[in-house]
Amino acid sequence: SAVEYLLTHKPDTIWLVGSGWEGAYSLEDTVCAGAISQRLMEETGDSVDDIAGNDEVIGAIALYSQWQDKLLEMFYHASHGKRLLRLNGHEDLKYCAQTDVLDALPIQKEPGVLVKNS
Question: By C-alpha distance, which of 78, 80, 38, 95 is closest to 62?
């Protein structure tokens, strides 16, 4: 997982950047950042003050804390989730609401080139 990679490699700085949608805020990107941040805190014992570089991280952790047991329901409220539902993408949302289901982490080798890190 992304968290395991970060714990193994221990970078000095971690940037979690949500891609958003058409230049706007994305609920699902933010909840993902919150999930990663919270798991890092749990694994390292660090506090939110130790890991948060800005208020957005604190907000992302709060969002994840509220919705972690009902991510699919949260996705139903998100604008992108509603768009997927209109396109008959319920199964896509169900898949995306899972955590820690992949055993590979894509790593950017160079711009536009991803490699499998397992």
Answer: 38
**pLDDT value at residue 18:** 84
Q: How confident is residue 28, by pLDDT bands cut at 50, 70 and 90?
A: very high
Closest CA to 94 of 68, 75, 69, 79: 75
Distance (Å, whole) CA 76 – CA 93: 8
Instruction: Supply 38's token pair.
Output: 């919270």
Cα separation of 72 and 93, whole Å? 7
Helix/strand/coil for 3: helix
Dig out the tokens for 82 from the structure.
């509603």
Instruction: Estimate the crossing angle of helix 2-9 against helix 27-44, to 10 degrees.
Output: 40
**Residue in this structure with the two tokens 């968290």, named with its chain if needed:** 3
| Single-letter amino acid, residue 100 | D
Q: For the ranges 23-27, 44-48, 94-98, 114-118, which has the lowest average pLDDT?
A: 114-118
Inter-residue contact 26 to 19 (CB < 8 Å):
yes
